[in-house]
Design goal:
heterodimer, A: 515 residues, alpha/beta, Rossmann fold, 2 domains, six-stranded mixed sheet, 22 strands, globular, B: 363 residues, mainly alpha, two-stranded antiparallel sheet, 4 strands
Chain lengths: 515, 363
């Protein structure tokens, strides 16, 4: 007889308790005894660099993987999940980084897909979804098809899906990676709303300001193990968290001294183009980037930045205006001609545009230059491998065998390969769209350093980013886009965040009109 | 109550496709065993006869190889398109179109020297198959019309075309009013290699090897791989998707047409409605089992050829020829199942634990 001791703590069971989680993959230990404890009704951050084991741990919690060792407790009860639906039945829902939505279905249809009665009435479902959305402060229109929605709206649909299935514990995997700053703040409010409703939110991120902004507690992973558990965010400062993540002092990027700006290298005049839906996206954009200059483009997502980058790169037909690179008119030229004229392009979508997922590291490395690695009709395999080896060495890409698919590389290494490839041909102009998005601290620094080095070598760089800190640190001039136009220009040395933010929503402060 | 569910393996099992194929074959033979026993036959004798007739001696091999030629070329045709993510379901019709082209040349060139005539026939077959694929290719490249539908529908057009020819203009006056085209001239036939095997075996082998090399070693093949992996990446790399789709689909049709020409000149007496004999559809299975790789097509085609020839041989023992068709289908099922099981494992789970909780509507 072992009666429980009288002085047993009366504290309620944690919503989630993971202990001693080990998960090994061939050649990789993804989780090495990681543990995590999340109190009910809190927003809990799980922090760590790419490869720290965050995603694996969350996949264990959500039933995607089964741990080799360790215990999963939900509300104090041990569970052995065999599938995500098991985890969902226990109340654990995951909002994935890539959305899993049917574009042609409406919001309501996506939300109830697979979790509705056999026959449903459209109005009933739509109003039920609207009620649910309202209860958690999620602005949405249940009858709109998903393909019309912005990334932020799509994410809200994913969250609604989990709530509809009665998830009490929500895991959000890098939820802000696809959001604009405004949308991210909105997400923070939604998460708080859910915590107040006694739901539990686990927030995976490596953006410290979001963690300090949205979260109650934080657990830091490094090398697959927990290095700090359930720190109170209010009592911890962000540089301390950053130190725990990287295991050294946090990276501080300083502004480089200005260099002499040379003649115009990229000239965009009155550029007009359509978006994917055939609606006007650019209404006459003018901008010039000089040699040795980084010009930044800030703006809320969906104001033409994406289309601008694609139009300059030759991947989107233009209906008016002109693009000149190094003085020669390349309006309407094919992508390969533009590359030949000295344009490097780092697209927003790494996988699927900049890189081909099923192809090998070498095949991806020669994507731009393969016409030069030829011997008659044959590809010169040796030259291709040598080119790839050179890129891998010069840009510090950590990779397995070069003839293996690139899908195995981490995000940071994929981007190093892509950026290296675009820089290796000594470009005169580089268009970089969201080059550091989703990368860990070291990856961000590596890419930023490369861009700054190019600038010092006299390359003209157009940097499109949703990270205002990055823009303020790296750029020599900062342009703001709104509604398909450049509406304001700032000197990043003196510009205030408030004025830039106002310009991003279309309120142009006096004195900031673009020249 | 316990029921099975599929759970993703952390790591794909080694040896993948050949293993899956072997398992598929084993499954097919075991199921076939019961099938044969159930219909009152001695399965061991039947299997023995199938083996003897298809792979037992040089003569059997020659027949099997002859059968593997159209299967392999049709499989290659499907695989060429498939490596770029396009589906050519029209190889059946393109084989007929190729045979029409070859038969037409044979009609006008009856007095040409053999090598010249045969070469011209095969060239016309290539053109015929390519022409039939040209429409779907243009429609897909220009305005994105689904090539599965268009190539499939053209099969019907091709077979009607053959019927129209052999009932009408091409009807042999000496056929006593039967709808038969005249026999091929002797100089329009492919030379024999050994036993029954004709030169087409070597030609098909060369074509498959050439495509294998082109796919893996050339810039053209590289562009194909990029386009097959991601259309957006291909455009980024400066590859013209429209031109690629056009050339690949026409080439696919041309290869199928070549199969029709070789089949006519090597294996048939004359062009008939049955000239493509389902090779075009079997080619889809061959290509799928070869994972759309030219290098795998030849081996799969020989095996399928053996199953088909073996299946025919047992008809004299009173076994329906459907047995061979069933075996082919079982191989495909078994191989697909084994392929799935190399990526997933079967778990037994209790009860209805994964039923989604109802919520929301009406509450």
């Amino acid at each position: 007889m072992n009666p429980p001791p009288d002085d047993a703590p009366a504290e309620p069971a944690s919503a989630v308790e993971l202990s001693g989680i080990w998960k090994r993959f061939p050649g990789v230990v993804a989780n090495a005894g990681a543990h995590l404890k999340v109190r009910t009704g809190t927003v809990h951050a799980v922090l760590g660099e790419n490869g720290a084991g965050k995603s694996t741990l969350m996949n264990v919690l959500s039933g995607v993987y089964r741990p080799d060792e360790g215990e999963v407790r939900i509300d104090g009860v041990v569970h052995h999940f065999r599938s995500p639906s098991d985890a969902l039945a226990a109340g654990v829902g995951m909002v994935h980084q890539e959305f899993r939505l049917v574009p042609s279905f409406t919001v309501a249809e996506n939300v109830v897909l697979g979790a509705a009665e056999r026959i449903v009435r459209r109005q009933v479902v739509e109003s039920a979804v609207a009620d649910l959305a309202e209860r958690f402060g999620l602005a949405t229109e249940p009858d709109r098809p998903v393909w019309q929605l912005s990334m932020g709206e799509r994410q809200r649909v994913e969250i609604l899906k989990a709530l509809w299935r009665d998830a009490r514990i929500l895991i959000l995997d890098e939820p802000t990676a696809v959001l604009t700053p405004g949308e991210a703040d909105e997400l923070g409010r939604i998460l708080r709303h859910m915590a107040d409703d006694d739901r539990t939110v686990i927030f995976i991120s490596h953006k410290l300001h979001e963690v300090t902004g949205f979260c109650d507690e934080a657990t830091v992973l490094r090398g697959g193990a927990t290095v700090a558990a359930s720190l109170s965010v209010a009592e911890t400062d962000s540089s301390q968290l950053a130190g725990l993540m990287v295991g050294s002092s946090p990276v501080i990027t300083e502004r480089r001294p200005p260099v002499v700006v040379g003649g115009p290298m990229l000239e965009v005049v009155e550029l007009v183009c359509m978006d994917d839906r055939g609606l006007p996206a650019l209404h006459g954009v003018d901008l010039t980037v000089g040699a040795g200059e980084i010009v930044g483009i800030a703006g809320v997502a969906g104001n033409g930045q994406r289309e601008l980058a694609q139009a300059v790169a030759g991947l989107r037909p233009t209906t008016g205006g002109s693009v000149r690179i190094g003085g020669s008119d390349l309006t309407g030229a094919m992508p390969r001609q533009r590359f030949g004229a000295g344009l490097g392009y780092i697209p927003e979508d790494r996988m699927g545009v900049g890189l081909a997922p099923q192809l090998s590291v070498t095949d991806n490395a020669i994507l731009r230059t393969y016409p030069t690695h030829r011997r008659g009709p044959f590809l010169d395999a040796e030259a291709a491998t040598a080119h790839c080896r050179d890129l891998v060495d010069r840009f510090g890409v950590r990779t397995g065998p070069l003839d293996q698919p690139i899908a195995g590389l981490s995000g940071g290494n994929l981007q190093r390969l892509l950026v290296g490839r675009e820089l290796s041909n000594e470009p005169r102009v580089v268009v970089a769209a969201q080059p550091t998005r989703g990368l860990d601290v070291q990856g961000v620094k590596a890419i930023q350093d490369l861009l700054v080095a190019e600038r010092e070598a006299g390359v003209a760089i157009l940097l499109i980013s949703e990270d205002l800190d990055e823009l303020l640190t790296l750029t020599d001039r900062l342009l703001v886009m709104h509604g398909g136009r450049v509406v304001a220009a700032f000197d990043p040395e003196v510009a205030g965040r408030h004025e830039i933010g106002e310009a991003m929503v279309g309120h142009v402060p006096t004195g900031a009109e673009p020249a | 109550m316990r029921r099975p569910v599929l759970a993703r393996r952390d790591q794909v099992l080694r040896g993948g496709q050949p293993l899956a194929f072997g398992v598929g074959l084993a499954v097919a033979l075991v199921v076939g065993l019961f099938l044969l026993m159930g219909s009152g036959h001695d399965p061991i004798r039947i299997y023995g006869r199938m083996f003897d007739a298809s792979l037992g001696d040089p003569r059997a091999w020659s027949v099997t190889l002859n059968r593997a030629v159209p299967l392999g070329l049709a499989g290659l045709a499907v695989a060429v398109a498939g490596s770029m993510g396009l589906w050519n379901i029209g190889a059946e019709g393109q084989i007929m179109a190729g045979a029409i082209g070859a038969a037409w040349v044979a009609r006008i060139g009856g007095d040409w020297p053999g090598p010249v005539l045969v070469t011209a026939m095969l060239a016309a077959a290539v053109v015929g198959g390519g022409l039939l694929a040209l429409g779907p290719a243009i429609a897909r490249a220009r305005i994105g019309v689904n090539e599965i539908i268009t190539t499939l529908m053209l099969n019907e057009v091709a077979i009607r075309l053959v019927q129209w020819l052999i009932h009408g203009r091409w009807k042999d006056p000496g056929s006593h009013n039967f709808p038969l085209a005249p026999m091929l001239p002797d100089n329009g036939r492919l030379p024999t290699l050994f036993e029954r095997a004709h030169l087409g075996v070597v030609l098909a082998g060369i074509v498959i090897v050439l495509f294998g090399l082109a796919a893996s070693r050339t810039a053209w093949g590289y562009e194909l791989r990029v386009a097959g992996s991601s259309g957006a990446t291909a455009r980024y790399a400066g590859i013209s998707l429209k031109r690629k789709i056009l050339t690949v689909l026409v080439l696919s049709g041309a290869v199928a047409g070549f199969a029709g020409g070789v089949e006519l000149a090597g294996n048939a007496d004359r062009i008939t409605e049955g000239i493509s004999n389902g090779f075009g559809f079997a080619g889809i299975i061959v290509a799928a089992l070869a994972l759309m790789r030219p290098s795998g097509v030849a081996a799969v085609a020989v095996l399928f050829g053996a199953v088909q020839i073996g299946g025919q041989s047992i008809q004299t023992m009173g076994v329906s020829s459907s047995v061979s068709t069933i075996l082919q289908a079982l191989i495909l099922f078994g191989a697909i199942a084994a392929g799935v099981l190399s990526r997933y494992r079967i778990l037994m789970v209790a009860g209805n634990t994964v039923e989604t909780p109802s919520s929301g509507v009406g509450s």
